[in-house]
Amino acid sequence: MRFPASTLTTALLCMSRSAAFVVAKRGASSVCRRSSLMPSFLQLPRMMTVCHLSSSTTSSSSSSSGTEVSKPIEVFRKDYQPLPYKVDTIELDIQLEPRKTTITTQMTIISSSPTVTLDGDRSVIELQHVLLNGTLLQEGTDYQVTASELTLLQVPLHTPFQLTIQVTTIPEDNTELSGLYQDSSGMYCTQMEAMGFRRFTYMADRPDQMATFSKVRIEADKEQYPVLLSNGNLLEQGSCNDNNNRHYAIWQDPFPKPTYLFAMVAGNLGKIQDEYTTKSGRRVDLQIFAEPHQTHLLHYAMLSLKRAMQWDEDRYGLEYDLDLYNIVAVDSFNMGAMENKGLNVFNTAYVLADPATATDTDFERVESVIGHEYFHNWTGNRVTCRDWFQLTLKEGLTVFRDQEFSADMNSAAVNRIENVRALRGRQFAEDAGPMAHPIRPESYISMDNFYTATVYSKGAEVIRMYQTILGVEGFNQGLKLYLERHDGQAVTCDDFLQAMADANPDIDLTLFRRWYSTPGTPVVKYRGEWNEDGTYQLQLEQETSDGEPLHIPVAVGLLDQATGEEVVSTQVLNLKESQQTFTFSDLAGPVVPSILRTFSAPVKLVPLEKDNESLALAFLAAHDTDGFNRWEAVQRLYTSLIFQHLPSKEESSSSSWNYVEQAFARTLDTCLDNSDYSISAYVLTLPSESTLAEEMDMIDPIGLHQARSTVKQQLARRFESVLMEKYSALTELLSQTKELKFDATSIGLRRLRNVLLDYLCSLTDTPEERDRAAQLAMNHYQAATGMTDQMAGLSSLVSIDTPHRQDALDQFYQQAVGNSLVLNKWFTVQALANTPNSLETIQQLYQHPDFTLKNPNRVRALVGAFTMNAVAFHQPAGYQFLGDVLLAVDALNPQLSSRLASPLIQWRKYVTGKLMKEQLERLLAQPKLSDDLYEITDKLAAMAARQQGDGRETSEEAPVIKRDKFAALAARQVEETTTTTTLPKRDKFAAMAARPIIEQQPTEEATSKENRISELQQRCQQRDAIYADLDQAEALVIQLLQVAQDTATALSSNQEVSVSQYQSTLQHIHALLQPHAQYVQAYQAPSTTTRMYQTRVEWRLAVEAQEILQDYRALERMEP
Q1: What CATH number is associated with residue 541?
Q2: pLDDT per residue over 359-401, tens digit each?
Q3: Minimal CA–CA distance to 265: which of 340, 198, 214?
Q4: Residue 873: inside a domain, yes or no?
Q5: Burial code of 515-538, b = ≥16 C-beta within 10 A, e = fewer?
Q6: How many CB atoms lie within 10 A of CB 488?
Q7: How far apart are CA 1020 and CA 1024, in angstroms?
Q8: Distinct helix (H) and strand (E) counts, the chain
Q9: In the list 58, 353, 508, 828, which could disulfide-bond 865, CB 3.0-4.6 Å?
Q10: Domain harbouring 495, CATH code
Q11: Mean pLDDT of 7-21
């Protein structure tokens, strides 16, 4: 895999994913019916769609001047067609020369079509010649070449033929790190997934084209590149007969594979070696390569590899199938790692580790990613995906497998908590933003943008639900059948589901299929009722993005309310309807439910009645037998208390503080008696700001940061003496062990101690407290025996105004010289510092001699960390700085720039959203923007227009018009105005947007930069006028909602309400709002991945009052 380095219903006046569940579930007519309380203009509008039809990610055309331009094209899953030809075998000859690499490809092909089209990126490779069965072909007569394709015009039908293609390329200039490139150490290496092979040579570059690479010959300078590697087994190596300064190696992979799994490496590398004997008795040689000075950092990776090989045999009976397994560590790498058959290429961050350079978390990641890439040998390589829309088939399944591996190697409960924290912090945000998509997307412009938390992490949760529903044995039988049935094939998610269903015929998985096509995070609501006859009824309701139910496994246990004892052990309830009630019998007394144990489904759990929620959470925090749910209960108590400290809240509840205080005290009291110290550490840790933000309708990032800091300080001050006592006890305990160990217990002890340090160092209000905290952190840093404790001490120091801060940073920098991974930590720790001048520090580091935009790890270390720092990032200068970086990075590495843009993903949910949006508009206004970054910013800003689906050609000379916010809605209007003199009576947006597009279509003469700027200014003026109307409409609608909310509140409190006065008030607001009614509309395309085109009003309404429908229903019942 490419392991990522590193996520609604129509309401009364709007349509948004967060609110759309109720209407879609109950039906629009039942909610939005006309009444005296709902004027006609509030009825749902007719849905409007925007279509995009294409078959490739880029399309080339010629402008009037003959200049070739590339236009983004959207590719759809429904348009999949198998190729009319099959490449059976491939032989490669790769001649590595300075600034000129020659690649000769010989393919055996059989075709049912007279024409054969191959993928190739002419911006990177230069075609030298083409031979068909040994005959030299002529361009124009025998073949044609465009920017992205080579088409053979006449090939033999239904009989094998030999095609030879020779190209040259310059890997040294390939800063995108896709295809063949040279990394910072001078090593040549490849990265082919998803579409890098077309940047290497011409070929059918898609996963369903599986060929046998029967011979790969690599030739290079013997002294500079003594190690030559490729997939499979080494057949031959030696010096070149015609030049003794050069040497060669010949590799063969007997297993058919798609192009994305091809790899080659050439460099001056050191290695460590070992061997593994499979259960069947076959010996496998294991080699891990890195730069010579890094080989001492490879031993933990080798240990992890052998553990993974044995685990896969023990758990699933899967053995490795080649005689040799190679791993290479590469410093300049876009992703985490790549599972190329027999030759894994790894980012150094996920393979190099020793106590002096890697934290405990680094060690855990190395073990996890090593396992992940090895597990791909069966779930990804032997059985791969038919097309890139099926990416989760291999990635979701393999993430699940590596999670199970890590759970067995360490603590299952801790592993589950860590995975869910990551899911909520990233994937839930993705689900709530414009880039939301199902785990199997329906369309893409740049496939690189869909290596997402949804495809990987949520995809893994979907696989986990299979196991929850079928049981471990049933799941294992299904996986076995899947691998046996499809070995050597490229298949789909439907094939996987069918294998699971066939292996478990007694379980109906029909509805489960919808998880592959439904975007968004489902919400499960619950209500319980105890009956005197000894029964307990649990009512569950589900809300999904399209209103249709999913098959959701809900793991539930029951605890006795009086004793806290578990009276019903975990049972899996299969929620398949919008609302279901489950009954538990033969109970001795009232019970408290423990719902969604071990996080049995990727959903949000919400009580239907919140009156006693905190009391129930406090009970579960004290008594729940499920480790995950006990942690979850405390996290929800923390969340409630933190939200009460937001600037918009006047005061916090004393009961909330009491519940948190009790849970915190109980955990502190028993933390040294618990065998799993990591669980205690996580229970004591407050929810992250990203996790908290997912629970907020409108995010004030600075306010949230301050609220969380306040609660943290309050807890630290309340328990300061106990925190210090436990910290000292742990310090003494750890000092008794001279050897630094990386077992679960040792990691847990360090993790717990560092959490206590973090609390103690948060007390810095007075000079005395600052000095005390700084000294404690400095002592912790200097006494550290490994990188984990060293980073914990340094992380605390950098946020304290003390001379120790710079002293420690200078010491750490000297320690980091010569080790890029440690140097990355030096950049990161400063980027995350909580200081008033943190942005200025980050900008200075951006100019540091050791910082480079050409190394993705270095960019992520500084810029990626910066976007996680609320104080530094969420300010005008912070957004401006990110925009500057994105433009600079996009010119070098589009994959990296698109990922760095993700912090802007939910700009509409932020109180500072207008400032964030300005940077998106600035990016979209650029005449040259990569497809990767364009697709991200396009959807984030909801401003994109791609008109290819309407059959209209759009000149690249007018990028601002093509990418204008309203052009998507106007595209249909332009076409219609060619045959009609008046615009159809549709939305005001479309009408206003269509006119400037029609009137301002650029002529050949109006292509200068000045004219484009003038056009942009006119568009901005028109948009500002629309926004002025929007502001007025927004204020009125919010006023309308407030009147309804206040009246409903009065009704629920049994206060007297004058219905006539209420109706008069509403009618007055309606009259004022009527001229702006067109703005209170929404449009949804049929494709689940073509996002809604929404206005600011709709987004604001979606977060103003999610219960507004209930208020209106109550008012209607009161209507005379």
Answers
A1: 2.60.40.1840
A2: 999 999 999 999 999 999 999 999 999 999 999 999 999 999 9
A3: 340
A4: no
A5: bbbbbbbbbbbbebebeeeeebeb
A6: 11
A7: 6
A8: 37, 33
A9: 828
A10: 1.10.390.10
A11: 26
In this prediction, residue 165 carries a pLDDT of 98
Q: Examine the domain organization and report whether 450 and 584 are in the same domain.
A: no
Q: What is the pLDDT of residues 41-78, one digit of tens each?
A: 222 222 222 222 223 344 443 333 334 445 578 899 99
DSSP string over 1061-1107: HHHHHHHHHHHHHGGGGGGS--B--SSTTS--B--HHHHHHHHH-TT
| Residue 91, domain CATH | 2.60.40.1730
HSE-up of residue 994 (Cα within 13 Å, Cβ side)? 20
Residue 432 neighbours by CB under 8 Å, 6+ apart: 7, 17, 18, 520, 521, 694, 906, 909
Judge whether 578 lies within some domain. yes
Catalytic residue check, 126: no
For 270, the token pair is 């050191």
The whole-model pTM stands at 0.79
176, 291, 364, 373: the catalytic one is 373
Which segments within 2-83 are labelled E, that is strand?
A: 58-62, 68-72, 75-76
Lowest-pLDDT range of 48-52, 253-257, 931-935:
48-52
> Apex CA 307: angle with CA 303 and CA 312, to 5°?
150
Do 460 and 549 have their domain in common? no
Residue 685 lies in a domain: no
Q: What is the mean pLDDT of the chain?
A: 84
Residue that is last in its domain, among 484, 516, 548 = 516
pLDDT in tens, 130-149: 999 999 999 999 999 999 99
| Interval 169-204: pLDDT, tens | 999 999 999 999 999 899 999 999 999 999 999 999
Q: Which domain holds residue 552?
A: 522-590
Asked whether residue 824 is assigned to any structural domain, the reply reads: no
Higher pLDDT, residue 59 or 255: 255
524: closest CA among 502, 503, 553?
A: 553
Q: Do residues 551 and 465 both lie within one domain? A: no
Total domains, the chain: 3
Phi, psi (deg, nearest 5) at residue 262: -75, 145
Q: Which amino acid is at 1035?
A: A
Last residue of a domain, one of 590, 609, 626: 590
Q: Mark whether 472 and 584 lie in a shared domain.
A: no
